[in-house]
Design brief:
There is one protein chain. This protein has about 300 residues and is an alpha/beta fold. The longest helix has 18 residues. The protein folds into two domains: about 230 residues, P-loop containing nucleotide triphosphate hydrolases (Rossmann fold); about 70 residues, no CATH class. The strands form three sheets. Strands 6-7-8-3-9-10 form a six-stranded mixed sheet, with helices on both faces. The two termini are about 45 Å apart. A hairpin with a 4-residue loop joins β12 and β13. It is about 30% helix and about 30% strand.
């Protein structure tokens, strides 16, 4: 297990800024999900923790040690990618054994067999151990890829959108399995995805990444119910949160388009100088009820059952 901290990490590639002043704290044994759109900097963050990229600025700490100048092998992390990275001429057993075979590891053959058999049982691929990987389905290959990471017993698991190439039904099944595996292992997992369903259903904590910056970190409940800004409010949720412009008038928050107002939380302390200050109201679709005689009139654009 490991405690991971990223402090003021910045990274550029030529004229492109991938990360700017990124701060991240992942607790020991936590399933942390990094959620963001394509190009937000998710994979760059993962590659730097893995030791495949070096930050231009900042510190990468694993259990308090600054590993920014350490090689990938020294960090003892396992990386699972969207692509399966298996040896097609090897059997499933041989693929699972491969990370344990280098002489530097000094693992006895009996221990290798024990580890492989245990992982195969955990992932329910015992019946596939003697099959060549080029004869496996997508879901089976991803299980083997995850197994290759688990069998090493690393300090940290890094997962770069490992489920995105699978069909919806299989993704749902593997989400549950992967979360159960993490809970049973008690290991630190950093899972990267653009899929908010994966993030909200799997993560103990979620970090929302936008243009190379962490804009909010919290539990799935906190991210969904208390978004820090309009980006998080509109990005997390399907359908997204309704955002309505308003302003502050005499200590009250007024939605002029709807002819509706509410007491402002800081109204008692608000001076007249802030009158007219712009506000944004956020209302989740499931919190809207259609009733005759309701205090607000509005046009309904879409309805989903």
């Amino acid at each position: 297990m490991a405690h991971i901290q990223l402090k003021n990490i910045s990274k550029t590639f030529g004229n492109h800024t991938a990360l700017t002043g990124l701060n991240l704290d992942i607790a020991d044994g936590e399933f942390f999900v990094l959620l963001g759109e394509t190009g937000a900097g998710k994979t760059t963050t993962l590659r730097m923790i893995a030791g495949l990229e070096k930050p231009d600025e900042g510190q990468i700490l694993i259990d308090g040690a600054d590993v920014a100048d350490w090689g990938a092998a020294e960090r003892d992390v396992a990386l699972v990618l969207q692509q399966y990275s298996l040896y097609p001429r090897y059997t499933v057993r041989e693929n699972l054994e491969f990370p344990l075979k280098p002489k530097i590891r000094r693992i006895e053959p009996d221990e290798i067999k024990t580890r492989v058999d245990r992982v195969a049982k955990t992932l329910r691929i015992e019946h596939l151990l003697e099959r060549k990987t080029d004869r496996l389905s997508g879901g089976e290959m991803q299980r083997v890829s995850i197994g290759r990471a688990i069998v090493r017993k690393p300090r940290v698991f890094l997962m770069d959108e490992p489920l995105s190439a699978l069909d919806a039904k299989l993704r749902e099944a593997l989400r549950t399995e992967l979360k159960n595996i993490q809970m049973n292992l008690g290991q630190t997992f950093l899972f990267v995805t653009h899929d908010q369903i994966e993030a909200m259903s799997m993560g103990d904590k979620v970090g929302v990444l936008n243009h190379g910056r962490i804009v909010q970190t919290g539990t799935p409940y906190e991210i969904y119910n208390n978004p820090r800004d309009t980006y998080v409010a509109s990005f997390v949720g399907s359908p997204p949160m309704n955002l309505i412009d308003g302003k502050l008038v005499n200590g009250r928050a007024v939605m002029a388009p709807l002819n509706f107002e509410l007491p402002f939380a800081g109204g008692a302390k608000t001076s007249g100088a802030t009158d007219g200050r712009p506000l944004v109201f956020g209302i989740r679709p499931e919190d809207v009820y259609l009733e005759s005689g309701a205090p607000v009139e509005a046009r309904v654009h879409d309805v989903e059952n």
